[in-house]
Specification:
By secondary structure, the chain is of the alpha+beta class. The protein contains 4 helices and 9 strands. The strands form 2 sheets. A 7-stranded antiparallel sheet has the order 2-3-4-8-7-6-5, with helices on both faces. Strands 1-9 form a two-stranded antiparallel sheet.
Length: about 200
């Protein structure tokens, strides 16, 4: 091995950190590159799963369907007026809420989401019509338009939040209201069957 002089040793010492820095730099680049590659694989995998695994982004998917048959039977036996409920609606109309209150100003409520995820509710009460209509329709205002559905004439109400179809009868008021527009409200009103059950 040739003898190294002092200048040779000094040159080696100066060069060594630079060489180590280059090696460390290459290792650092490899680490960052591996991280980016791994992240890319994860993104591709997630995207593939989203496309091929069935999922439902509609409003309907997060809302539970309710069975209102017991409440409807109870209301039709107890109410002082014929209680309204739909018959023959397509299965993609989802019932989401039901209430019957037999106290003063007895009231009936049945809420749905229509096939487009819009809200439609059937509400009835023996309360004063003007107050009940205002509350049920979220402040919708009466228009001059009416709608003949079967043998009943409904009054149209237009509002910033809900529209409504209103049927006034002796002893009770029926309101079909919601965000579905008059097309959806008419479908619901047309399906309604008004019944009482006095056999019990």
């Amino acid at each position: 091995m040739p003898e190294r002089t002092v200048p040779d040793l000094l040159t080696e010492i100066v060069r060594r950190p630079a060489t180590m820095g280059r090696v460390a730099g290459r290792n650092g680049k490899k680490t960052v590159g591996s991280l980016v590659l791994s992240l890319g694989v994860c993104v591709v995998a997630a995207g593939t799963a989203y496309v091929f695994i069935p999922h439902d982004d509609t409003k309907q998917s997060s809302v539970k369907r309710v069975d209102y048959s017991v409440e409807l039977l109870t209301a039709r036996r107890a109410a002082s007026y014929p209680v309204a409920a739909p018959t023959g609606l397509a299965k993609d109309w989802k019932p989401t809420s039901v209430r019957y209150d037999g106290a003063a100003n007895e009231s009936w409520h049945l809420g749905f989401l229509d096939p487009d995820g819009q809200y439609v509710a059937v509400k009835q009460s023996t309360a004063k019509p003007a107050e009940f209509i205002d509350s049920a329709s979220e402040g919708a205002e009466e228009t001059k338009a009416t709608e003949r559905i079967g043998d009943r004439t409904w009054q149209r109400y237009k509002g910033a939040k809900y529209d409504a179809l209103v049927l006034r009868a002796d002893g009770s008021t029926t309101v079909v209201t919601g965000t579905a527009g008059f097309g959806g409200l008419t479908k619901m009103a047309r399906s309604l069957e008004m019944k009482q059950d006095r056999t019990a």
